[in-house]
Write a structure and sequence with these properties.
94 residues, elongated, alpha+beta, SH3 type barrels
């Protein structure tokens, strides 16, 4: 059985909250992501998905938890978007 390609990513969530999810595929609509409950995948546009870096995630999390919106905005602007090129192409049923 082939090993599924997946990568941990940082997602810019509601109110700029940083969320760690797993990217499992890509399609025309964006990147397919799953959390701990893999039965509930979600597809988000690439503008919301960033390359994982533990230091970046820790700094984003700290700024979010401390309510430092200006610092959070600056960090999101400098974060690298996730390119997803290593992920399999998915066909999403209509």
């Amino acid at each position: 059985m082939p090993r599924m390609v997946s990568e941990t990513v940082i997602v810019r969530g509601f109110a700029d909250e940083p969320v760690l999810l797993t990217a499992v595929g890509q399609c025309d609509d964006g990147i397919e992501l799953v959390g701990a409950d893999e039965s509930m995948p979600v597809t988000l546009g690439g503008d919301w998905v960033y390359a994982h870096s533990q230091p970046l995630y820790s700094n984003l999390r700290r700024a979010y938890d401390d309510g430092r919106a200006d610092d959070l905005e600056t960090m999101w602007k400098s974060a690298l978007h996730f390119d997803g090129s290593a992920l399999p192409e998915l066909e999403i049923a209509e």
